[in-house]
Amino acid sequence: MKSRFYVLLILSLLIALTACGDVSVDTEGTDTATPSHSTESVNSNQETANNEETSNNEIANTNEESESTEPSESTGNESDNSLKIIGKITYDRVGVKSNGVGLDYGGMTKETANQVVVKAIDSTGKVVASTTTDDSGNYSLTNLPSNTEIKVRVYAQLEKSGTGGWSVKVVDNTRNSSKYVLEGSLISTGNSSTRRNLHASSGWDGFSYSKTREAAPFAILGSIYQSINKVLKADSSATFPPLVVNWSENNVAAGGSIADGQIGTSHYNFNDGALYILGDANSDTDEYDDHIIIHEWGHYFESKFSRADSIGGAHTTGDRLDIRLAFGEGWGNAWSAIATDDPIYYDTMWAGQSGGWSMNIEGEYKVVPGFYSEASIQRILYDLYDSNDDGADTLSMGFKPIYDVLVGKQKNTKAFTSIFSFIKGLKDENPESNSKIDAILSSENIETIEDIYGDNQHNIYSDMSVGDTVEVCTSIRYGMGSQGNHNIFGNHKYIRFDVNNKGTYKVKMVQSSKGNSDPDFALYRVADSFQQYQEARGSVPNVEEASYTLVSGSYILDIVAWNPNETTPCFNITIN
Fold it and tell me: Total domain count for the chain?
C-alpha cells in the first residue's frame, strides 16, 4: 500500500471513567502515538468489504478532558449484533456581547453538533461502524464487536444523501485540506453497551486561546446547518451541492497564497465553489460570527440555487454600487438576518476578539438609499420577510416567496441580476402585494419597478441593432471603487441587441470623447440561458474589439472604461 503523510488535529475529548494515558493520533490507518499537530506516516487503504476506508488528511487532537464514558441503560451481556455505543456530541459557542461589539466568552454556551459524521474506529484503524448525529446531537453506533478496543471519531462534516441532502466539510487550507476530527480514546467495548459523550472546547482560558480551538469547525457547521434548515422549510426537496469550507487559525486578512492562509477576507469563491473563513485570533477570526458565515453561505446559495452576476470587488458603506454587486451583497446581508431571525449583524475582531462592529440590517441610517445601495437592498429583502411592521413596511411574506423568485424568475432572468429583476419576479408571483412592495421601494428612494431592467430608473441599459453604431457613455462620477475595481454605479453600461442569423460578428468599442482610457467589454447570451463569452480586455488605448461566433438570440454587451481621465468617457459601439 502506498504510504502518505497526514496531519491530524483531533479536537479534544473527555474520558471521565476510563483514563487511557497517551492517546494515538491516526488517520484510519496504523495507529502511532504522536503529539497533536504532528505529521504522521500511515497506510492508505481503499474502502473494502472489510469496511476500511481511504485515509484522508485529518487534523486531530485528543485530550482526556473532553470525553465522558459511562454504561448505557442496557444491562447484562449483549451479543455483537446488539452491542452499541451511544452518546451526544457538543461544542462551545461564543456569542457576541450585548452591545454587538466583541465576543462574550463569559456567556459561552454548549451547543449540540447536529447531523455530523461519527465513526467507530478499532485499534487497527478499521471503520467498524458509521452514523450521523440527529438534531439533538445524539448518535448511536450499532452492531459493535464485544471486548474490542474502539474509539469514537467525530468529523467536522455534515452528510446526508438523497433528496433534501447535503455534504459540507470543514478543512484546513494551510494543511493540504486536512479534515478536522474530534476523537475519543481507545476503550474496550466489553460486553455491555456504553455511552460516550464528546465535547469540543473553544480553547479559551479566560485570556487567550491557550489550547486547541476544537469548537471552531463545529461552530461554522452549526451556522451552515441553520441556513440549510431555513431553505428546507421553504422547499423540503431542496438538495444541496457539496461544499468545502476552508478554515484555519492561519487564515489572515491579507492577500497572497491560499495555502499559507492569505485569504484576504472571509469569502465565497465563485470559481472553486468553496468558502474561506478567517481564523486569525487577536486580529480577525470569524468562526463565531454567525452572520459572516451565513452571509458567505448566501453567496453559495446564489451560485448553486439561483444566479449571481455580481462583479465583486471591494465595497464600503455609502458606495453607489454596480446594480449586480449591490444585489449580491444586499442579499448576503439580508440572508444572514433571515436565516437567524436576528437583524443584528456583527463582525468581531482585534485583541482578544474584544472589538469589531455591528449593524441593524433593517434599521441602519440611510446614507445613499437607492437601487445601487447594498444597504437598501438588505433592508428591502428583510422587510419583505420579517413579521414586524415598521415605517413603510406593512408586509410579512416570510421566506418562501423570496426563495421561489430566487430559484425561478431571478435564476432565469434575461437581465443582469439586480433588485429590478428580483422585484419584477416577486410582483408577478404576488400581485396582491404590489402596492405594499412599492411602498417599501419608495422608502428606499426607488421608483416603482415595472420591468427586469429598471428602464424607468436611470437609463442603465441601451438598445442597438446589428449593423448600427450607438454612442454610450460610462461615468466615474461616483468613483471607481475603493480599490479601483470599477464596480461603482455608472462604471459599466449595458447594451441590448438581437442576432437574427448565426454567424461571426465583430464587436468594436472606440472612444468618441476627447479623453483617454482602456475600454473593455464582456458579452452575454440571454436567449435560452445566461452565458458569458470570453471578455475583451486588450491594452490598446481608446479602442477594443473582438469577434464572436453567435447564434440567433438576445445578447447584452457590458462595457467599461478602465482608468479614464475624464468623468464621462463616451464610446461608439458597432456590431457587424
Answer: 3
Tell whether 103 and 171 lie within a shared domain: yes
CB 410 within 8 A of CB 417: yes
* Burial environment of residue 264 by CB neighbours within 10 A (0 to 12, 13 to 18, 19 or more): middle
Q: Report the pLDDT value the prediction gives residue 65, as an integer from 0 to 100.
A: 62
Q: Determine the Cα–Cα distance for residues 285 and 347; give it in Å rounded to an integer.
A: 9
CA angle 4, 10, 14 (to 5 degrees): 145
- Alpha carbon distance 411, 428 (integer Å): 15
Question: Which amino acid is it at 421?
Answer: S
The pLDDT of residue 57 is: 73
**Region label for 34, one of left (φ > 0), alpha (ψ between -120 and 50) or beta (otherwise):** beta
Task: State whether 487 and 421 are in the same domain.
Answer: no
**What CA–CA distance (Å, rounded) separates 544 from 565?**
17
Question: How many angstroms separate the CA atoms of 423 and 411, rounded?
Answer: 13
Q: Is residue 369 part of a domain?
A: yes
Same domain, 123 and 185: yes
Residue ranges for the chain with pLDDT beneath 70:
1-56, 60-65, 72-81
Q: Which domain holds residue 419?
A: 306-458
Looking at the structure, tell me whether residues 418 and 501 fall in a common domain.
no
**Distance in angstroms (rounded) separating the CA atoms of residues 510 and 322:** 23
Q: Report pLDDT for 79.
A: 55
Only one residue has cell 457539496, namely: 242
The helix (H) or strand (E) run that includes residue 26 is: none
Residues 453 and 500 in one domain: no
